[in-house]
Each structure stands twice: as structure tokens, then as C-alpha cells.
């Protein structure tokens, strides 16, 4: 899934997502001291805007220039967001730089050396939080499914298995999706929240 794929996905409709913060992010970040956040696969910007409105300094990255244009427009004059075109498969984020690394429904592709995943883990500063939320997938995709194979991507429990004793896993569970959008087939999420200790 490259830039062309995602640009086409966004061009297919005027607004691809709801424009509201993802419920899993809102629930898990509540009560955290704001700091520096990395929003991976920021899409049209709802999560980044919510984080900024709650005091975070946000670096929001996406591979789609169409999505980033919409995100910038939605944010208006919000100065606490740095919108960046970036592909973490090619350019890993800076190491130990973020108090929160958030991947909300972001497809992290499996790789033999886990390079992209390791780059995202390395971006979390000491004491910082990794937050990954994915759809709970049960069974094969529908017969008419034309998207990528869900089996090509890491799920939160697999990511948890890659964390060593420098991490504390605070949440690693499936749960009903928070603020379920209307007509959305995904009713349950997998949630991983882990803190880097050193």
C-alpha cells in the first residue's frame, strides 16, 4: 500500500473518515501529561487535532498528500501540529523523541527483520507510551474483498511479543470499539498500551 494507493482511497470520496478522534485514543490518553506525540498514519487529521487541542505538541505523518492537505485545512491555524509527508517503512521517525507514539488502525506490514516496527518502537522516549489500536479480525475477509490481506500486518498482541524487559505492558486486550461509527462492520478492537522503562 503505497502513496498512489492511499491517494486514490482519499480521492474516492470527499471525506473518508468521521472527522472525530478515535475513541481508543481518547480513552487511553485521558489523564496523561501532554508532551510530544507522534501520530502515525494521521489521515485527515482528527486525532492530531484532538491531541493538539489537549495540549500535545504533535508530529503527524502520512503517506498520502491528499490526506495531509485535508488535515491541514481541518486544523486551520493550529500551531501545535507539524504535518509531514513520511513513509515509516523508508524513513523511521527520530529515536527516543516522543512521549506518545500513536498508531490508530495503521497497517504495520510484517517484515523479516521487523524494521518498520522497530523504528516505531525506537521513537518512544524513556517513560513514553506506545499506543496501538487495530480492528479485531476474525476469519477470512469477505469473498468480494479487494484490499490487502489482513494477515500481512502485525496485530497488537504480536507487537507486544516483540517488547523486551525495557517495556511495561499496561494494556493488551480486545474490547468493544469506543464510539462505533454508524454502519461500521468492526465492533471490537485490539488495544496495546506499553510504557518504555529505559
TrEMBL record:
Methyltransferase domain mapped to chain residues: 38-128
Keywords of the record: Methyltransferase, S-adenosyl-L-methionine, Transferase
Organism of origin: Tamaricihabitans halophyticus
Lineage start: Bacteria, Bacillati, Actinomycetota, Actinomycetes, Pseudonocardiales
Source organism, top-level taxon: Bacteria
Pfam families for the chain: Methyltransf_25
BP terms from Gene Ontology: methylation
Key word Methyltransferase present: yes
Gene3D superfamilies, per the entry: Vaccinia Virus protein VP39
Name of protein: Methyltransferase family protein
CDD domains for this protein: AdoMet_MTases
Gene Ontology molecular function: methyltransferase activity
